[in-house]
Amino acid sequence: MLSEERHQAITAVIHRRGTVTVAALSTELGVSEATIRRDLDVLDEAGSLRRVRGGATARRGSVRPEADLRSFADVAGSATAAKQSIAARACAQVRDGEVIALDIGTTVAAMCPLLAERSLTVVTASLAVVRSLAAAPGVDIVILGGLLRPNYDSMVGTLTESALGQVRVDRAFLGTAGVRPDGAVLDSTPSEVPIKRGLLEVAAASYLLADHEKFPGSGFLEIAPLSRFTALITDRSPLPFDIVLPEGEDVEVLLP
């Protein structure tokens, strides 16, 4: 990760949490504590945060309102009609007996109620997915262990990546923070990016689930080009802007 990307990520974490330790940032961003200390010193000098012993805190007035700090469960529970229609289209791609991987996105989570009566094996690092499908009689769940991100109910880190590398799935369903006009699929959480890339690597077919608000959405970390996916499942066509893929690359678009 480039230093500028780390600085943006650290600033975002500080604005969400108010206070964070060097150790926590080191684990979440996957870099050494010495690197984090240098980053915090630079950001402190720039006025982006206040350096304290063992970590950093937000400067007065820079912490986001509590209403913006909703948990994954809160967000997933308020899935829009667009996300629900995308989830239904995604589930239509699944065949009984398959092994599928479900990412942590809220649109992906909306697939769970529709899969509860199916006969499947589900691989996931999302505890929200696990809870939703735990009682499903025909669903076997493979949980990817690792470091817990409590606010998003997801597992990340070296252990998660290692476990993911040992499985193969028929289909993977991923969410995104945004998609740029050049087709770059984005995320805003550094620790999630290796997991998403890993899902693409182990899947025979992969699907990006993104409603119209994700064009361009947000995010500053590139996961993969859109052409890396088997299909884009979205709720609206034409999209809010034209996606221009490199010559020779394309992606199928599936609508509800």
From TrEMBL:
Name recorded for this polypeptide: Lactose phosphotransferase system repressor
GO molecular function: DNA binding; DNA-binding transcription factor activity
Keyword set, alphabetical order: DNA-binding, Repressor, Transcription, Transcription regulation
The keyword Transcription regulation appears for this protein: yes
Keyword flag Thylakoid: no
Lineage of the organism: Bacteria, Bacillati, Actinomycetota, Actinomycetes, Micrococcales
UniProt cross-references to Pfam families, sorted A to Z: DeoRC, HTH_DeoR
Superkingdom classification of source: Bacteria
Cited Gene3D superfamilies: 3.40.50.1360, Winged helix-like DNA-binding domain superfamily/Winged helix DNA-binding domain (1.10.10.10)
Organism annotation: Brachybacterium avium
InterPro entries tied to this protein: Carb_Metab_HTH_regulators (IPR050313), DeoR-like_C (IPR014036), DeoR_HTH (IPR001034), NagB/RpiA_transferase-like (IPR037171), Tscrpt_reg_HTH_DeoR_CS (IPR018356), WH-like_DNA-bd_sf (IPR036388), WH_DNA-bd_sf (IPR036390)
Function as written in the Swiss-Prot or TrEMBL entry: Repressor of the lactose catabolism operon. Galactose-6-phosphate is the inducer.
Ranges of residues in domain HTH deoR-type: 3-58
